[in-house]
């Protein structure tokens, strides 16, 4: 009996290490059964450098190799041409089990190409250029200014947490309208369970991060559903964006169930408030490390403030579009920090790539290694916003720049992310500020800040309440905080 168990165990391990394939699999290792190479993949590394996991395997196997991550069979590619082709032709999103359990099996964001296209079109109605201009910019501007002033009174602010609050407060009102104070407070408290649980390779057991995350998700979904049902029953006003979703729920060609609508809102909040704040915090760290960049940003935002009359309050769309150097900084930050897979699919059919076969049903992870290619970018590991001078700063995807994905599943919130970051940087430049030298940015799939991402922030003068700005004469146009 024991011998039979041993034989079966060895057979199982052999099958795991040598998956079936009609052709020749790309080189690589499947690691230990089920666990695969997940722990090596999740090993923290400097977020502003190319992944050590990828670097080691590219040197060993080349730009295309196989692995096993999060219990699934994976093909990893750093070949930009192949990545773009897979992004265009394969319809099934490749998401890990941890992402599926976080968003839900039937979530429209991770369903078919057609479902995602419909969701993207809905999202663009709020976060497209017209929506940003008419509905979002003023709110983000006011919230950023308010939170920055509060930070100045306290002497410090947490960049990631502050940015996340700005997103939640802006989008919650636009989507849901006014919420009961207790419900809004409980909704905000739920967010603290998500950052640690997104990519946990563990089971949903009491006391674990995954368990707490899923419990928070259940609470959030109930809060959102209760709010929707109460508003529908009472005829109370919904937020602008939910009116669009409400129309989908009431009928038409693309009827959406209330469950789909709630999952859509939940996912919309989660993505908007967990991704951009991390990149923004890393961007502030990069700015802090480069005094010349900080000085040029101060010069640009000083000009915007000086151009305003006493009657003007806050930023206009024209002000935002004039932030040329700021956009260069943001583009460069996304180039360096976007080292997660920008193409994530499940292959529809067997795909022949040279001598190798990518089997149908495997997860394909395409990485933007082109961002670190010295043939495309001079000194690619150097943070140099000036490399974007004269280029199309509004473009969010090209063959050499793909931080927001590629193909039909391009991120619908890309323009919102860039605008939120630009406005935050604008208001930060109104103050004397510095980030602690010991602040570090690492990546464990997501950007993490083990020593926090606080900035010390102070002002020497009262805010000009007529325009909501601090006079730059106080700071001096050549002020650089090292």
Q: What does it look like?
A:
This protein is α+β, with helices and mostly antiparallel strands. The protein has a single domain, classed as Cytochrome P450 (Cytochrome p450). The protein has 18 helices and 13 strands. A 5-stranded mixed β-sheet has the order 2-3-9-6-4. A hairpin with a 2-residue loop joins β7 and β8. α9 packs antiparallel against α10 and α13 packs across α16. The longest helix is centred in the N-terminal third of the chain and has 26 residues. The radius of gyration is 24 Å and the shape is globular. The C terminus is likely disordered.
**Helix share bin:** 40-55%
Q: What is the end-to-end distance?
A: 70 Å
CATH-scheme architecture: Orthogonal Bundle
Strand order across the largest sheet? 2-3-9-6-4
Give the domain tally.
Answer: 1
Number of helices: 18
Could you tell me the strand content as a percent range? Answer: 5-15%
| Rounded average pLDDT | 79
Radius of gyration over all CA atoms, rounded: 24 Å
User: What structural category arises from helix and sheet content?
Assistant: alpha+beta
What's the shape?
globular
Low-confidence stretches: 460-482
CATH class wording: Mainly Alpha
Tell me the major beta sheet: 5 strands, mixed
How many beta strands in the DSSP annotation? 13
CATH topology: Cytochrome p450
Concise synopsis of the structure shown:
The termini are far apart. This protein is α+β, with helices and mostly antiparallel strands. The protein is built from 18 helices and 13 strands.
Features:
482 residues; alpha+beta; Cytochrome p450; 3-stranded antiparallel β-sheet; 18 helices; globular; disordered C terminus; Cyt_P450_sf; transmembrane helix; iron ion binding
